[in-house]
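Help! Submission page says 'invalid entity' but I think these are all valid:
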Amino acid sequence: MPGRIQSIERAAAILRLLASGARGLSLAEVSRSLELPKGTALGILRTLQHVGFVEQDPESGRYRLGGGMLSLGTRYLDGNELRTRALNWADTLASRSGESVRIGTLHKHQVLVVHHVFRPDSSRQTLDVGTLLPLHATALGKALMAFDPLAVPEEVASVETDSPVELTSFTRHTVATMAALEEQLTGIRDSGWGWEAEELVDGEVSIAAPIRDRRGVTVGAIGVRGAVERLRGDDGKPDMEQVSYVRDAARAISRELGVTPY
Amino acid sequence: MSQQYVAAIDQGTTSSRCILFDRDGRIVSVDQREHRQIFPKPGWVEHDAQEIWTNVEAVVQESLQKSDITPDQIAAIGITNQRETTLLWDKETGKPVYNAIVWQDTRTDDIVRELGAEEGQDRFRARCGLPLATYFSGPKIRWLLDNVDGVRERAERGELLFGTMDTWLIWKLTGRHVTDVTNASRTMLMNLATLDWDTEILEAMGIPASLLPEIRSSSEVYGESTGYLAGTPVASALGDQHAALFGQTCFDPGDVKGTYGTGTFLVMNTGTEPVTSNNGLLTTLGYKIGDAPAVYALEGSIAVTGSLVQWLRDNLGLISTAPEIETLARTVEDNGGCYIVPAFSGLFAPHWDSDARGVIAGLTGYVTKGHIARAVLEASAWQTREVVDAMNADSQIDLTTLKVDGGMTADNLLMQILSDVLDAEVVRPMVAETTCLGAAYAAGLAVGYWPDIETLRANWHKAAEWNPKMEPEVRRREYHNWKKAVRRTLDWVEREDGE
């Protein structure tokens, strides 16, 4: 039987330490408390950060437990259950917005469409539940990435180091670099909703907002998708009325899942 | 101020709701209140009609106030209700003489058997479209007359009134004693051809005609409301399944809607002539709009569909929430040879075998819980297929589209299987609340809020659609196997002679 692995024991000790304090800990505090060399502690913290178990506060530089840790050990929300709970609200969103509605959850490094409501007109449409969409080129994916630390594009996840990665381009508008994507995500964390214009399909815009459960964990995103002429204003910004419909729906479903409205 | 909304009151088995709709048929506001289920003895189920009325008043007021809507903005009130539930009350005081006896209540078992004595359960079927069964109101009235002190005497003196829940609410709202054709068609007391009370059946059941409300259409102004919505016309009444048919805009002969809840109710529009079923379906009213000819329907109900999923969750513990059935069923490609026939308390349409009991057939060492989950979903689909086959045979119209609603329509795999086994398109409309929508539509038509049924048709939008993907050969084989499994359930319960 192989022996114990020291670095995993140390990682566990770091997680226990971070879990014990309410405020984040600095690198120096972590290494002092556990009597670890700073370099070793930093390596472990960065690895834990990469898998979503640890977060670093961008301002203070302190470390704390990440969202990935919170969702461990608690039952994940079944996609079929999410659809069932969201059914009425997704219908209402399609009816108010006049656009097709999709609900997506994180599946490996892509968005899995778990619910789709047709655009309310008489046009012929096909159900695309079960389809996988790229995280970085859809509003659903951006909303997931902004609030779920485990949501990282395929291209980033498959790279070991911090070397620069190139995101797959679907149109000439697709966000190409991690830096540009990070900037978008910061904006989404700020505003609570995300959008993209022609990043996946020419002529189409999508708008989405995160769905949270009672623990505050982001379990999915809901959004509308439609023609750029309908969803984008002359000022180059998304139609704010549509944004408000999307956010109303996301809030209503989150309430359905037990989030208190304040 | 212009009248912008129609209020639909849905007086259901477990709760009362009020939903406000706008001109596009969209939900604007909802309020809901549950009422007590009273179980005095095994098999007995009652509701407190006074409590229901208080709840209805509350949900109407609350649904408006929640969305800052004032009573003068309401163009009309529509009513849809649990069917067959029976109430008698005093004409003068308005006090019920007894709790409402709910449709599920089986206390009339003996009365029903006695009434059928020589000719059997189909004794009144040609006149009223229904077999003798404990659900329907007629035998429940008879029970009240026979068993509650003084009720027969007071009824014969003309002091009492009978009503199903629509009648009770319209009487409380407007003071008028009326019912609509769809609710009347579930009493066993209405003649399908004349749409009036059938004196022969009344006589056979010993029910004084003075108890009965006037039978009106489903869509007309019955009177003006008093109370919170004072002055607003009360303008529709439809039994819940009939309202769902109307809300699904099933306006053409051959249109079928299926409501998938704990059980499933399939209703087919058969046009302006009643169709007698040779295949175990009920002949009933679809709806009647004002002076237009009445539209008839065939109804087939399936006792156990969604409740089989609950059984898998609560009794077997194979899943922790109902929607997980789909996740579990998707872990396998097919049923692995396993079939489940949930004849928990016999089989309804088209078999009508109360002695049938459920089976899980085709078990081998290969079968996993995934296969069982799949067989559970398939059971809902094949039971639907049997009813649809009966409808096609009776009506001579082949189903091309099934319009679905109800909680189970959230299960995409079930919807695909349904389309596969029916070899027909399955569509889910945008507004899932088709029952309330149907009542709102009928009320709105009566007051001119909507000009005609074409406008309603234009409001109907597909939220999702499923098309058949199953090979005909596979469909044939699976249906054959399903029928084989059904045969193994029949006559399971053995009764002593004379039972």
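Support: the input was valid. A stray whitespace character was the problem, and the output above is from the cleaned input. The interface with chain A takes residues 24, 26-27, 320-327, 407, 409-412, 430-433, 461-466 of chain B (CB under 8 Å).
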